Amino acid sequence: MRAHLPLTLRDMLENNASLHTHSPAFISSERRISHGELLPRARQLGSALERAGVHHQDRIAILSMNSVEYGEVLSAGFYSGIIIATLNFRLAAPELLYQLSETRPRVLIFEAQYQELVAQLRAQLDFVETYICIGGDVDWAQRYENFLAQGDVAGPSFTTSEEDIALLVHTGGTTGKPKACIWGQRETRMLARLMNGEQQSGPVDRGLLVMPMFHIGALAIMLGLHFRGGCAVLQKMFEPTAYLNMLEQQGVTLLHLAPTMVQMLLEHPAIGQTKVDSVRTVVYSAAVMPTPVLRRGLEIFGDVFTNLYGQTEVVTSGLVKELHRPHGSEREQNWLNSIGHPFPDTFVRIVDDHGNEVARGEPGEIQVRSTVMARGYWNNDIATIETFRDGWCHTGDVGRVDEDGFLYLVDRKKDVIISGGENIYSREVEEAVLQHPAVSECAVVGVPDEKWGESVCAVVVLRAGKTASADEIIAHTKALIASYKKPKFVEIVSELPKFPTGKINKVELRRQFAAHS
Q1: CB neighbours of residue 479 within 10 Å
Q2: For residue 487, what is the domain's CATH number?
Q3: I want to staple 96 with a disulfide (CB 3.0 to 4.6 A). Which of 91, 218, 481, 484 is the partner?
Q4: What pLDDT does residue 171 have?
Q5: Nearest-10 crossing angle of helices 68-80, 9-19
Q6: Same domain, 118 and 68
């Protein structure tokens, strides 16, 4: 009988230290660390945590922007079997308290810039036994380097197994309070392997990560890079000029961006003078990219774009580089609007509200079954039962599958606007509005309507130097889509509220513009 090969993230760290000893694992503007240096640092941190009272499968939490230290904390958990709970650094104090109270970590590691926020909460965090500060001095916390020095480079007395929980990663909260998804060592290792194949990265690749590593998207890209000894180049925040400078300085080969970020780069004055020929892959995610933006991106960067679709709960599908065919047949050009084919060992079905599979081409909820899927939600059995049923993840996204097997994202189930009994998919309206030459960004939401139940509201950002009235935009969309789908209201704003992933915060937009009722 063939022996079972355990799948852990510790193996990945050890392999990289052996095979890619001198290759960089993480690079930031402050420091860099090689794979050969990362392994003993991870062991030492794991040992220091044990000496501070942390046991195997205990939880620690990290509140920080992207940094080499963040990578070390993740690696210590991957090596030891200590569970890492990632925290959203953009949260207000009550929201952060909710996430901490849900996961109840024994240790809280935080970046110095968040010390006042953490200080506000300390009296309510009786479960936190040790505070560790990255990059600063705080009276009630240990300095990160001082704490790490207390450990043994041989590592903790315990290690991990594939059945262990590796990560607690919170959802974006687009439909309510964030939930902590349970990612085990086995599934996270398989995520690394899957992502490595999809992004086609090897030992010499350098991926520029600007999306926060508390989110599954950036984590997945980093894991995919490290699976074959690649390097994650880290930036704290997205600023186009700094991003383009880092791309050029570090010879970056892989970019990971939300479509809105791609658009900002393409509209930046320096894009024409920036050397981008090192870039072999641009992964875009968080949303389908508007077709005009994608076409422009292909002109600037070449045939390097890959679209990946998934959620914190499960990764699902991708449109690979080779199927981005802007100059192909009409049928092939339509694929640019899709989210591609399901990943290997991933099964997708489209179902109606009663759980019955719909005919090909018809919209319904996307449900996914995969080996690369969260085990459920931490300390939330009700939500786990609702979302993970019969081996399928009920995504809450509305999609359809065409005759070629391509999956199309139609809308979030909760974002479907029901007006006068008709289903209106906000994505379709957004595509129509975005074809107006003065429109840079658009988000469509439903607002209460006494007569029709809901009405369509388009919230629009105009291009710099361009003008357009609400009436002009409504008339423009009426020429492209059915009259009942056109916006009843158009609000022109300076910017759209967004989550750290770049995804537009439609919960906030609905709250802001509900007064239209």
Answers
A1: 9
A2: 3.30.300.30
A3: 91
A4: 85
A5: 120
A6: yes
Q: What is the pLDDT of residues 161-197, one digit of tens each?
A: 999 999 999 986 545 578 999 999 999 999 999 999 9
Which residue do the tokens 């050397």 mark? 275
Coil, strand or helix at 185: helix
CB atoms within 10 A of CB 276: 18
Q: Which of 185, 204, 230 is the last residue of a domain?
A: 185
Q: Tell me, what CATH number does 106's domain have?
A: 3.40.50.12780
Statement to judge: residues 17 and 159 lie in one domain: yes
Torsion from C-alpha of 309, 311, 316, 318, nearest 10 degrees: 10
Range of the domain at 440: 416-516
User: Which portions of the chain are predicted below pLDDT 70?
Assistant: 1-4, 172-176, 286-288, 413-414, 420-422, 451, 500-502, 515-517
In a domain, 303, yes or no: no
Q: What gap in Å lies between CA 386 and CA 3, rounded to an integer?
A: 36
Q: How far is CA 294 from the centre of its chain?
A: 19
DSSP 328-354: S-HHHHHGGGS--EEPTTEEEEEE-TT
| Domain at 390, CATH number | 2.30.38.10
Q: Per-residue pLDDT tens for 344-365?
A: 999 999 999 888 999 999 989 9
The DSSP bridge pattern shows strands 281-284 and 254-257 to be parallel
Q: Does residue 73 belong to any structural domain of this protein?
A: yes
Tell me what pLDDT residue 264 has.
87
Calculate the CA 322 to chain-centre distance: 23
| Three-class SS state of 451 | coil
pLDDT at residue 2 in the model: 63
Asked if 396 and 435 sit in the same domain, the reply is no
Q: Do 476 and 450 belong together in one domain?
A: yes
Tell whether 405 and 445 lie within a shared domain.
no
In terms of phi and psi (left: phi > 0; alpha: psi -120 to 50; beta: otherwise), the region of 319 is beta
Regarding whether 364 and 498 lie in a shared domain, the answer is no
Q: What is each CA distance from 327 to 41, 294, 373, in whole angstroms?
A: 49, 12, 35
Q: Within this chain, do residues 29 and 163 fall inside the same structural domain, yes or no? A: yes
What is the C-alpha to C-alpha distance for residues 214 and 222, in angstroms, rounded to an integer? 12
Say how far residue 431 (Cα) sits from the centre of its chain: 22
In this structure, the strands spanning 231-234 and 364-370 are: unpaired
Instruction: Provide DSSP, 204-257.
Output: T-EEEE-S-TTSHHHHHHHHHHHHTT-EEEE-SS--HHHHHHHHHHTT--EEEE
| Residue-by-residue DSSP string for 278-311 | T--EEEE-SSPPPHHHHHHHHHHH-S-EEEEEE-
